[in-house]
Amino acid sequence: MIRFAAAILLAVLPGCGVAQRLDAASEQDVWLADRGELPDAPKTARIEPMVWDEFAEVKTSDQSRAPASQSEATEPYHWKGLLLQSFAFDMLSNATRIMTADQDDRHILLNKPFWSDYWASLQQFNMRRWNDGDSIKVNYIGHPMEGAIAGYIEIQNDPRGRDLMISRDRRYWDSRFRAFLWETVYSTQWEIGPFGETAIFNQGGFTYPIRCPKHDLVCDATAPYTNNTGWVDFIITPTVGTLWLLGEDTVDRFISDPLVRKHPNSFGIKMVRASLNPPASLANILRGRFPWWRDYEHPNDYESFAVGKFERAMDEEPKEHWDLNPHYTSLGLGTYQTGCLDCRTTTTGAGVELGVAVRKYLDVVADLGVQPHASPLSSLNVGGSLFTGNFGVRSGYSGRMFALKVTLAQGFASYSRSQQTPPTEADPNPPTMRNFNFSAVAALSGDIRFGTHFAFRTTVEQMLIRYKSSVRDPPGIGTPPRLSFLSHDNYINSTNWGVNVGPVLRF
User: What is the pLDDT of residue 5?
Assistant: First the structure.
């Protein structure tokens, strides 16, 4: 009967496009029709084929369309995923820049004051020109790719847009406009924010000649110079980035997806899809998916296994509320002794650490310590007793018999008697004062537990202390083409290993 009815429809309604759509149906659809299943009857779980019109609205089966509407109605926007994945992309970009930077740039990052140079760089932005001095491949290829990646990060966290393919559907264009807005926010932060190019390597804070080899004085004298600022990246990143995103959506629809549907189990074809759309591939990796993942093939499947398991673990309520760890400390420090400046000495002291559990696998910690008479004599950076205070987070395994956790914290290291000025022949003993230096700690701690409320903890830590150096850059701001608006101060980063041991009271 069904075959007979289909034949009548094909004969009576040839102008309605039904024949063409049935011709485009897969063999699987014909097989189901033979079994007597009606179009609106409940269907078995399977991947539904998509029927295409020439750049018209995407036509999907009832099954592939229903989850999208259900997702829009019940699933909230994933703000946490958007922010965390964008931050991860920002850190990945900065890590790549740091690893490929030259020694001059690394000196600016490691040995110059961060916040004062950041503000100085912001004040020197030149917005009276378009080009910033970068090459075409950086401004018109690299930055648009950055914008497209940020756009795909927004799309994959938006339940209204992540399972839409390019079409005339207004929902698709609204979704890509929201992606454009996020690209604008992300690229602006990357240009002038505290986690972007102005803060890391101080874009805008100094000038350099364009297209000149370093230390080529002849080229320096004739070449134009820039401080790497202008309108180009602010405009090109989101606008061309969105065009790039639309182009790769088009490649997905007309090239990648037909290949994947024809060879659904081919790993090589999946890699071709990932290669043809690198921004979406990186965005997928940042949320724990395979590079070739497409949301419209998996409706309502937002969380990856790894990310979902991690988020559920981090949402678990803690069984322990807080712990107190008074400890004995042994710390290797650069000190000032008779006849020896910056001599590495093992100092001893005491401290106390307080940990407050906010989640099962996340604690907020504060550690205060003192090293009495750590440096017998005084210099510009050290002298007298050392007081430390660090505040941060701790995470790891906590069991009934033992625990193993990692701590990351930052704070201050303060000496009680450091010199205000360098000694001179006229004043060999300048007045002393308390100083404050930035410090950061990375620590690994292990607990052996003897009961519900008592344990013994051993901690191995590395404490970085950032001292102000007596070496200053020459006065003035230089001459063209090499001007500098950065601070003349320099800093020394001293790393110090230490061990803490002591009891733990748990409540």
Answer: 46
Residues constituting the chain:
507
Three-class secondary structure of residue 111 per DSSP? helix
**Quick one: which H or E segment has residue 333?**
strand 322-337
Q: Which residues of 358-390 are buried (b: 16+ CB within 10 A; e: fewer)?
A: eebbbbbbebebebeebbebbbbbbbbbbbbbb
Give yes or no for a contact between 399 and 357, defined as CB atoms under 8 angstroms apart: no
Distance CA 456, CA 447 (A): 6
How far apart are the C-alpha atoms of 148 and 151, rounded to whole Å?
Answer: 5
Tokens standing for 330? Answer: 């042994």
Per the CB < 8 A criterion, the answer to whether 412 and 371 are in contact is no
Provide the 10 A C-beta neighbour count for residue 195.
Answer: 15
Q: Is the backbone peptide bond immediately before 481 cis, with ω within 30 degrees of 0?
A: yes
Tokens of 423: 């000694």
Q: How many angstroms separate the CA atoms of 373 and 336, rounded? A: 11
- List C-alpha distances in Å: 235 to 82, 131, 184, 230, 343: 22, 11, 8, 10, 53
Q: Which DSSP letter does residue 206 get? A: B
CB count, 10 Å around CB of 348?
12
pLDDT (tens digit per residue) in 64-93: 343 444 455 588 999 999 999 999 999 999
Per-residue pLDDT tens over the stretch 326-380: 999 999 998 888 777 778 899 999 999 999 999 888 999 999 999 999 998 888 8
Query: Counting beta carbons within 10 angstroms of the beta carbon of residue 69, is it exposed (0 to 12), middle (13 to 18) or buried (19 or more)?
Result: exposed
